[in-house]
Amino acid sequence: MKTLSVRVFLSFVVVLFMGNSLSAQSYNAFFLGSGRQTYVLGVNNSGMSVGRKGISYSAALLWAPNGTVHDLGNLGGKYAEALAINNLGQVVGDSSLAGNSVYHAFLWTPNGGMQDLGSLGGQNSFAYAINDNTQVVGEFRGTVAHAFLWTQAGGLQDLGTLGGSASRANGINAAGHIVGSSSLSNGSQGAFFWTAQEGMKQIDLGQTTFAQALAINDSDQVVGFFVNPNDSQNHGFLWSPTTGMHDLGTLPGGSSSASLAQAINNSGDVVGIGVVWKAGMPTGKSASVIWSHGGTIKKLGQLVVPKMGLPNGATGINASGQIVANGGGAYLLTPR
Fold it and tell me: Which one of 34, 104, 176, 207 is least enclosed by Cβ atoms within 10 Å?
């Protein structure tokens, strides 16, 4: 989700504003590393985080909470990335095989190292999430691209689609409930919620032509993004079976703006990325963002002193509110 450079500890004061009142919340920030294509992509409740580094060669990395880094190896090729970690310290991601033309999902464990999860029909496979029951979800690609569930007992299971030709699974919670995206029979793309009892069901996000569910917590709260028909921009959303869909909104201050909600913890805190376009500017300015308890969107960079842009997005948040984010390097932000 490389070179093993010296980790630098940086302590920053973080100020959170709740409406017009000042909160006492502050963070210590660990600088996990920088360089070419260094990204931190997931975090568990112990503050262990995972990611990747490199371009011509990429390595799957595991960081300890103090910034110590471990290269997880590969499946015979020169490209690997770690995308998610559970509370047992088990890591999933993908790696190229020998020859670097085929990629397979992997499961890495502290005692067993890296295990090839295989694929279906000899195709590529990619693992995106894992729960504490060692259930893994992702997608396999080839003549078709379908979401899968992998278990130690049953191996890979094709989860099918919502009527179209392609799907991918992005998140799984403790109950084994899975979320992701799938094409529909009419050519649009919808977000899905999957259970073993009912299979794959489309999440109702109103009138939209494109949606992805990216993460789910143990209360079945789901986050992702959808194309809002009012402005034709991506908006982050928060959805649950009991409360329905909530548009998380976008950052103010531009001629147009967009957001993606990428992770949620069991307290309902959401992190992701926001983009704002100014009139006459060809590209937007991006920032890592947080929605505390699914509330008002805030720039995460503005909550850190000295100011940090964190332009590539916040990618994970754990039970204690630790956040992993990217921008000029990879960071682990820990609430005091």
Answer: 207
